[in-house]
């Protein structure tokens, strides 16, 4: 008897005769069956009248933007362009003002000494740290979305500025100042462009391990670069650890005790105050007051004892910064890589901090709007002699812990800076350089994230490797190379994961119709002659070859897990569970067609389960639905297994080769398997003799 001539009724009769009882054509009685389970018909998309080409993603994006713009009212436009109006309209003076005032004053007291310290780190006169803390703060209060983010000079950006300026052949201080201001303009322009084009998502491809490793290595370099103020002699200006250590050792004979003792004393006081402020909430003001305490102590000692071996800051210009436009753009091309790197730091650190603070204080924040606000602050700041400013983690934490409610706290901080520029600069000339260095070292000591390294070692060795690679290359090869290597490895890991997706062989959990990964659930069992494969990623040109290779492996090497059903010599069915597949491209569809033809030559039937709407439409447009046969597309894996088991069992009972595959792949036959998918003709679940 040939299976090629079997109809559904014939197959039913055949199976019924070989079983223990008789059954009707609509409800075949299979051996050991216990309950009826319907095969749910899969609705195929109609592509016959679909003359429209698939939509282009950019069309969807632009249509979404257009729809949003049409819905926006005048008030929405004001809130978008000037986010400060969101909190101005709802400001509660009796409740918020006192908190904002205290927070603003606290951060201002913390920022004055830090700003001068970071300017020295950047290789600039201390006054430019104060300039960078003045205009950008006021501008950000108007255009920034975050109500707690404290912006201004930060250690990492200052190191990047120093490294960029150190690469310029002309080492005059005047040119360095001009280029630092130009750098702020370039950074602001890049941030505005990325914010307007909503490109902040590009930075998501950089792993957190890369950022942590880069920040940790940079913190070590920053700390070593400030040691010269403790030792009392100059060391090499470099972003690499080897030249720094070599120059420190080479100048050891010039070591001086007074700056070392004063710097160490101030550093110990700063660390103690910072840790006590963190540990006890009622003493958290100590954390903010620590930098000012160090400055006051150092200035007092220098003023009273006049130690000759301790270098002082010197004269600082008095008054507010004046308006000026960059005079030359000759070095703009040289500064672009550093501008891009600082912009990346702004997205990863500032926007990340801002989003975390917004979530904690229960208000919404748009990342791209926040990036645009930072860009405007840097552009306008560059017109008033500021070098690049961004969000500070430590000052933002103090601002939030001081219960700042709105951007008014930032305005108050800006007023503190303005008053310092107008009235306090004559006092600043007595500040010891070692005191400013102690402030920098204290600030960056918390950036060495060894806890993250330990966590990564315990949780994910690959991320730990990425952390080690990034930190090591940053330390020994420099900041730019360290970032490039870290980002390169990060992208390589992303590409590797995409090109080698996770693929699981599924088995049935006992007593259920649920199918899960047999490696994750050892109790799950498979059926002889049937392989169920789940692809856990989009399918596209980069990974289809890997997927095909894995499918061939599963066909040849039958898994060594518990199997049920009739004993068969080979695989007759491959079921693809496609519910996790979010996208499939034309290359992948063509490859699947080739795979189907390859299976067909070996009498293996391909079945597809639960493709989503977009994937299903792509498959239908390609003609693959007709090629494989509509009857071999299923809503559930279990439906596909039932049908395949029916054929496997009938083939086993007749001891025939399953030549029916040639027939049931033909859609022109009026008695095809699609009759079994009718809701009026439910299948009985074939719980075979091994199913117990």
Automatic annotation (TrEMBL):
Residues 15-27, 671-681 have a biased composition (Low complexity). The keyword Iron-sulfur does not apply. Gene3D superfamilies: STAS domain. Keywords: Membrane, Sulfate transport, Symport, Transmembrane, Transmembrane helix, Transport. It comes from the Eukaryota. InterPro entries: S04_transporter_CS (IPR018045), SLC26A/SulP_dom (IPR011547), SLC26A/SulP_fam (IPR001902), STAS_dom (IPR002645), STAS_dom_sf (IPR036513). This is STAS domain-containing protein. It comes from Eutrema salsugineum (Saltwater cress). The lineage of its organism: Eukaryota, Viridiplantae, Streptophyta, Embryophyta, Tracheophyta.
């Amino acid at each position: 008897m040939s299976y090629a001539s079997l109809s559904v009724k014939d197959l039913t009769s055949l199976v019924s005769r070989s079983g223990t009882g008789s059954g009707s054509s609509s409800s075949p009685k299979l051996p050991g069956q216990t309950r009826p389970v319907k095969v749910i018909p899969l609705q195929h998309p109609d592509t016959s009248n679909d003359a429209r080409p698939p939509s282009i993603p950019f069309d969807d994006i632009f249509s979404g933007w257009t729809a949003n713009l049409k819905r926006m009212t005048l008030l929405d436009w004001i809130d978008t362009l000037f986010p400060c109006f969101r909190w101005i309209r709802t400001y509660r003076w009796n409740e918020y003002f006192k908190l904002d005032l205290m927070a603003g004053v606290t951060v201002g007291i913390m920022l004055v000494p830090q700003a001068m310290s970071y300017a020295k780190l950047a290789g600039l006169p201390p006054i430019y740290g104060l300039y960078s803390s003045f205009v950008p703060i006021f501008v950000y209060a108007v255009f920034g979305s975050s109500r707690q983010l404290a912006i201004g000079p930060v250690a990492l950006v200052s190191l990047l500025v120093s490294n960029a300026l150190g690469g310029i052949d002309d080492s005059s201080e005047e040119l360095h100042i001009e280029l630092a201001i130009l750098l702020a303009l370039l950074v602001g322009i890049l941030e505005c462009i990325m914010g307007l084009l909503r490109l902040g998502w590009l930075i998501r491809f950089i792993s957190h391990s890369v950022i942590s490793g880069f920040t940790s290595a940079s913190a070590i370099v920053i700390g070593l670069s400030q040691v010269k103020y403790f030792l009392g002699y100059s060391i090499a200006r470099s972003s690499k650890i080897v030249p720094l250590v070599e120059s420190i050792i080479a100048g050891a004979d010039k070591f001086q005790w007074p700056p070392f003792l004063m710097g160490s004393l101030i550093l110990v006081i700063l660390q103690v105050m910072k840790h006590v402020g963190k540990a006890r909430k009622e003493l958290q003001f100590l954390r903010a007051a620590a930098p000012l305490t160090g400055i006051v102590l150092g200035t007092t000692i220098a003023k009273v004892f006049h130690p000759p071996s301790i270098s002082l800051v010197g004269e600082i210009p008095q008054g507010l910064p004046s308006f000026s436009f960059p005079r030359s753009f000759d070095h703009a091309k040289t500064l672009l890589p550093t501008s891009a790197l600082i912009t990346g730091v702004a997205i990863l650190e500032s926007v990340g901090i801002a989003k975390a603070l917004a979530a904690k204080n229960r208000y919404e924040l748009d990342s791209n709007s926040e990036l645009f606000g930072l860009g405007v602050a840097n552009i306008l700041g560059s017109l008033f002699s500021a070098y690049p400013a961004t969000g500070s983690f430590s000052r933002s934490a103090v601002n939030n812990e001081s219960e700042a409610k709105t951007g008014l706290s930032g305005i108050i901080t800006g007023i503190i800076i303005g008053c310092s520029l107008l009235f306090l600069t004559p006092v600043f000339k007595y500040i010891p350089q070692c005191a400013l260095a102690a402030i920098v070292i204290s600030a960056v000591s918390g950036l060495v994230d060894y806890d993250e390294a330990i966590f990564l070692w315990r949780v994910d060795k690959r991320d730990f490797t990425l952390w080690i690679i990034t930190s090591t290359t940053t330390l020994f090869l420099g900041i730019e190379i360290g970032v490039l290597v870290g980002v390169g490895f990060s992208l390589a890991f992303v590409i590797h994961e995409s090109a080698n997706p996770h693929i699981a062989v599924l088995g049935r959990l006992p007593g259920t119709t649920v199918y899960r990964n047999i490696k994750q659930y050892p109790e799950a069992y498979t059926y002889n002659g049937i392989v169920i494969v789940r692809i856990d990623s989009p399918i596209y040109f980069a990974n289809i070859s890997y997927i095909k290779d894995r499918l061939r492996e599963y066909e040849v090497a039958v898994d060594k897990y518990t199997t049920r059903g009739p004993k068969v010599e080979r695989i007759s069915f491959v079921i693809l569970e496609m519910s996790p597949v979010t996208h499939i491209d034309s290359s992948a569809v063509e490859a699947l067609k080739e795979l189907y033809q390859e299976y067909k030559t070996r009498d293996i039937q391909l079945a597809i389960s639960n493709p989503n709407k977009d994937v299903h439409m792509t498959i239908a447009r390609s003609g693959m639905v007709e090629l494989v046969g509509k009857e071999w597309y299923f809503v559930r894996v279990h439906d596909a297994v039932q049908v395949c088991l029916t054929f496997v069992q009938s083939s086993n009972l007749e001891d025939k080769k399953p030549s029916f595959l040639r027939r049931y792949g033909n859609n022109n036959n009026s008695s095809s398997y699609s009759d079994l998918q009718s809701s009026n003709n439910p299948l009985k679940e074939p719980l075979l003799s091994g199913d117990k």
